[in-house]
Write a structure and sequence with these properties.
alpha/beta, Rossmann fold, five-stranded parallel β-sheet, 50% helix
């Protein structure tokens, strides 16, 4: 394949910076990159030039990407030009499906991996260059066939002239008949090879017939096919055919199969070096011809070899030997070159067909994956909707009843307890979704420290014990050692154990039994949680730790949940360098889940924060805080949030003032000096970051410049917390906030003032 040909790659985008970015990614591919800043400009270029690939933006003014693609497909010249849609905004599936409906070969959304784009562009430009080369070779073949037809016409004329001179030129006639027989033999070779290649699946199946054709029509005694080995430095004999089964050929055949031929060595090596036909009219001896002596002994004196070429590149060689003289005229040379080129075109065509099949299989696989992902997404969205709406129904219902003023006494307390419990349930669902997202994207960070594992287990048991006792389920614990210490994130370890215990209690019927066992080995510890519950079917067991997978996802299922708990346990265990396994004898035979973690640090006492982390799962709070004399400025555009915080903090003795914007907050600061400031991040106009920047830029002598500020926001990702602390906030608390936790934070930040 020629390397001088540059393929045109058309880049269509109305934004110059996007064009510049794609050019910087693709410039080292050595192709001709054409810019077009509009659909009409792209069409004008396509009217006069061919392109290997079009990288097409979807959203453009005037003629958008899909409309341009339709116009491109309407023209015969560009009907099959590959198109890759590139978009930063049109990421919905309807856009992607519309792109593929226009026969686009791919749909990339920004940001994309530059190497992936380069790989795709490299493939299609190479494919375009190969197609151009095939067209050129076809033209050459057509030209050669035309020359052959001309020779046939000339031959017929010569035969006619010789026939008229038959009486006076018998000798000339005999020579002409001989020439004619030779030409017919060569035509028979070409026709046989063409027919064989048309019916063959690959070169392996066609090679024996091709070699046998030379033996039958050119009086060849033996014919061999040589192809490069895996190293590409030597040739190996792949196929051998003989005209007869004479025993005297066995030594030559054995030697041919055994040796490796390098360039310039032997007849195949000579063909390889010259990349052209080579004729040896007599046996050539010497180190460069290792089979010469064997050939001379069995009477092989004349040898011809010619290359198989794909374009101009050498692919392999065919050689044949005769015992009689063979005159190598130009017609025979042309025929051999044409046969080598035809075989090369056949190989290239099969390569392209294989690549196309691979692309089709890949496209089918990707389509099936997309359909599966879409189906799982729909199931997941339905489950999320159900799980969020169920507690919301209780919250709204009881809220409406409380607002009506008709709920009093015990019913009033029950309504508040129900609203609080269901709000906590929604918060837990959101926490599970965020944890799952962080684990998948690799954004969850572990806070590793030496941790006593038994207190973590006991704390998790305390959390699930009320629910277990309500169902009459017995909880038991068995420890190999009560002083076992490992290096882990204590909060995440508690979360794993709590999730498995909660799962066991959920799927264990009343009067059942749940047992947690701690086992240790030289370098690992294992926590096993067994239950006498409904068990896991063998069909579902391999998928029990997959995200959003539930044994029963129908509308009649007996248990709620998103199917994330076990997936989170698996990811957290793997982040700790451990693993989690599930075992079950089948339905109604219980299940056993085991967490295996490496034991890194031994003999270290338990750390204090474990109990604080466990407390966030409890439904009971002791509202005990002393905020007397503390002034709190609350900044939030949500009026309900401001009213709730005002009410709660005033009940504990704080003096509060609320503002619904940054400007209102600074107006309040000019007349009222708080001890601490609570602010939301996302607010219209100016956000919380603008507030902290303005506050810290105040003259240092001003008391407001050093007010501690807490970011109280629904932006709960780890990167959000890191950004807030780097921006100057003293603390980042995620909504919904625990009022006791907020009060404790206010006391900590103001106690030294």
């Amino acid at each position: 394949m020629t390397s001088e040909l540059q393929a045109n790659v058309l880049l269509v985008d109305d934004r110059p910076e996007n064009l510049l970015a794609m050019e910087s990614i693709l410039e080292n591919l050595g192709q001709n990159l054409i810019r077009a800043t509009s659909g009409r400009e792209a069409l004008r270029f396509l009217l006069v030039e061919d392109v290997a690939l079009i990288l097409l933006d979807v959203q453009m003014p005037g003629l958008n990407g899909f409309e341009l693609a339709e116009l491109i497909r309407e023209r015969e010249r560009t009907q099959h030009t590959p198109i890759i849609f590139v978009s930063a905004t049109s990421k919905d599936e309807q856009y992607i499906f519309e792109g593929y409906s226009l026969d686009a070969v791919d749909y990339l959304t920004k940001p994309f991996e530059p190497e992936i784009l380069k790989s795709k562009v490299r493939f299609f430009t190479k494919l375009f260059q190969q197609n151009q080369e095939i067209k050129r070779q076809a033209a050459l073949l057509e030209k050669a066939n035309g020359e052959l037809d001309s020779l046939n016409t000339e031959l017929e004329a010569r035969v006619e002239r010789r026939t008229e001179q038959l009486e006076t030129a018998n000798h000339e006639l005999e020579n002409e008949i001989a020439v004619r027989k030779q030409s017919e033999a060569r035509l028979a070779i070409e026709h046989t090879i063409t027919r064989t290649l048309a019916d063959a699946y690959n070169l392996e199946s066609a090679a024996p017939i091709i070699l046998q054709t030379f033996c039958e029509h050119l009086n060849a005694v033996i014919c061999c096919l040589w192809l490069p080995d895996e190293s590409g430095k030597t040739l190996s004999c792949i196929h051998i055919k003989t005209a007869d089964e004479a025993d005297d050929l066995s030594s030559f055949i054995s030697e041919s199969r055994k040796i490796k031929i390098a360039p310039r060595i032997g007849l195949p090596g000579q063909v390889w070096e010259k990349n052209a036909p080579v004729w040896l009219p007599n046996t050539v001896r010497g180190e460069k011809f290792p089979r010469a002596e064997i050939a001379a002994e069995i009477g092989l004196h004349c040898a011809v070899g010619f290359p198989i070429k794909i374009g101009r590149e050498f692919y392999g060689a065919i050689e044949f030997f005769t015992r009689c003289d063979l005159s190598l005229d130009q017609n025979l040379i042309n025929m051999l070159e044409a046969i080598g080129s035809e075989i090369g075109q056949f190989i290239q065509r099969k390569r392209l067909e294989a690549e196309r099949e691979n692309l089709l299989r890949r496209e089918k696989s990707l389509r099936e994956q997309a359909e599966k992902a879409s189906r799982l997404k729909d199931e997941f969205l339905a489950t999320v909707s159900h799980e969020l709406r169920t507690p919301l129904n209780a919250i709204l219902g009881w809220g409406q009843m409380l607002q009506s003023g008709k709920v009093t006494g015990d019913d009033h307390n029950r309504a508040l307890e129900t609203i609080y419990r269901n709000a906590k349930s929604q918060a837990q669902l959101i926490d599970d979704l965020l944890d799952s997202s962080r684990l998948i994207t690799g954004n969850l960070r572990l806070n590793l420290s030496p941790t006593a594992i038994v207190p973590v287990i006991e704390a998790a048991l305390d959390v699930v014990r009320p629910g277990a006792e309500a169902k009459g389920i017995t909880l038991s614990a068995v420890y190999d050692s009560e002083s076992e210490t490992i290096t882990c994130d204590s909060h995440r370890l508690q979360q794993m154990i709590w999730n498995l215990l909660t799962n066991a209690v959920k799927f264990t019927p009343p009067s059942g039994h749940v047992e947690i066992k701690l086992e240790q080995s030289y370098d690992t510890v294992k926590v096993l949680i067994s239950d006498t519950g409904q068990g896991i079917s063998p069909e579902f067991l391999p998928f029990v730790f997959d995200r959003f997978r539930q044994a029963d996802s129908s509308s009649t299922r007996s248990h709620d949940g998103l199917g994330l708990g076990l997936a989170i346990v698996r990811h957290l265990a793997e982040l700790h360098g451990g693993s989690v396994q599930a075992e079950s004898g089948g339905k109604e035979k219980g299940a056993t889940f085991s967490i295996t973690l490496p034991r890194v640090v031994i003999g270290t006492q338990a750390i204090e924060p474990i109990q604080e982390e466990v407390n966030r799962h409890k439904s009971e709070h002791i509202f005990n805080a002393d905020l007397d004399g503390i002034r709190v400025l609350i900044v939030d555009d949500d009026i309900d949030t401001c009213e709730m915080l005002n009410f709660a903090l005033k009940r504990w003795g704080a003096e509060t003032h609320s503002s619904n914007s940054v400007d209102e907050a600074f107006a309040a600061l000019s007349t009222w000096q708080p001890n601490i400031l609570l602010t939301d991040i996302n607010m219209p106009g100016e956000d919380g970051y603008s507030l902290i920047n303005r506050l810290r830029s105040i003259i240092p002598d001003d008391a407001a410049a050093d007010i501690p500020v807490i970011a109280l926001t629904a932006m709960a990702r780890p990167e959000d917390s890191e950004k807030a602390l780097l921006s100057g906030f003293q603390l980042h608390l995620a909504k919904p906030v625990d009022i006791q936790e907020l009060a404790d934070a206010i006391i900590r930040l103001t106690k030294n003032m």
